[in-house]
Design brief:
406 residues, nine-stranded antiparallel sheet, eight-stranded antiparallel barrel, 5 helices, 18% helix
Length: 406
Amino acid sequence: MKNFYVLSIFFLIFACSPEKEKLELSGKWIGEISMQGKTMPFEMQIQEEEEGAITAIIINGEEEIMLDEIEKKNDSLHIPLHIFDITIDVYIGNNVLAGTYTKHYEKNYVLPITFHKGDTRFKSDSNEATADFSGKWEVTFIEPKEQDTTEAVGIFEQNGEDIKGTFLTPLGDYRYLVGIAEGNQMKLSTFDGNHAFLFEAEMQADNTLKGEFFSGKDWYESWTAFKNEDAELPHPDSLTYLKKGYDNIYFSFPNLQGEKVSLTDEKYQNKVVIVQIFGTWCPNCMDETKFLTKWYDENKDRGVEIIGLAYEAKDDFEYAKSRVEKMIRKYDVKYDFLIAGTNDKEEASKTLPMLNSVISFPTMIIIDKNGELVNIHTGFNGPGTGKYYEEFVEDFNVKMGSLLSE
C-alpha cells in the first residue's frame, strides 16, 4: 500500500503533467515529509553551480546543515543526508520535486516527500496570533500504549506569529524548533536529516497546553504543559552511575583497525580521559562530537584524551566502521574511536556492566589522571537550547581546567 501511494504521487505529478520546462533548482524550497497522516515541513536552500555541482542547506532557524554529496542524473536527484545512512531521492517535475525519504539502516522505512519553492514552512491564514506561547513550560509527554510519561521543559520565544524554541528532556534536547502561532494553535517542526519532528498544541481556557508530538514514521506522544518559569529537570550528572560492587569504568573494544583498546593502555595513563558513549545516527551525539572536536583541538596538549565508543545501527563491524569514518571526515575529528556495539540500549548496557544502564546517547564519562571516575553526564543540551548549552560549556571548561591543572 505504501509503495502504491508513493508511485501514485509520481504518476499524478509527472505522467499527468504537461511537457516539462527546465526547472531552476537554485533557491529556497519547502520540503514536506508525509508521516502518520501529517505533513512535516522544513526549509532547504539548493544551489546549482554552472559546472553542474549541486549543494543544499537544511535550515532550522539558526541551524544550517550542509549537504554536499548530491548527485543529479537525468530528471532525478540523489541526496545523502549529511553523515547519516539516509537519503532523499526525488524526480524533478515542472514546479515540484517528489520522491522518497529513506532510512537505510531501518527495515521498510520509506516515506513520501515533496518540495516546492517557498519561504515559509507553515502557512498562516491570520495576520495576528491571539495566544502567547512564549516562556518556560513544565511539560509531560505521554506515550499512549504503555502510558509511560517523560517530564520535559519547553522553552519558546515568540515574536508575533513566529515561534522558535525547543524541549529539554532528561536525555537531551529536541533541537532547533521553528514554527507559528495562529489563534490558539501552535505548530513547530525540525528536520536534521535523521529526526523529523512535528509538534502541535492548543492553548486551553486555563492557559495550559494540550498537544501532540509526531516523530518520523510511527512515534507518537500526546503532551500537556503549564507555564512555570522555575521548571527544572534532574541534574544530568545524577542519572547514570556505577552499580554497587564496581569502583570504576573498564572496557576493551576494537578500534577502527580491529585492534583491542582499553583504558589501561599506556596512551591513557596519567591523563584525564573523556569517554563518549554515542552513535553516528544520533544528531544530539553529533552536537556533542562537534563540541568535543573543537575543545580537543584546543586542549589536546594539556594531558587529555577522548575515546568515542560507537554504538551503531547494525551489528556489523565494517558497517559501523564506515559510518564512524564518514563522521571523522565530515567533522575532522582527531580523537580515538572504538566500535562498542549496537544502539539497542539494553544490549549497549551489557557491554558496560558497571553502569546502572546506558539510558542515553550521548553519555559522557570523565576520568581523572589517577584513573578514578569523576562524573557521568547523561544526554547533551546542544546549541539549540541557548543559555542551557552555554551553561554546560562554562561548567565543562571549569571542571576540565581543574582536572588538567592537578
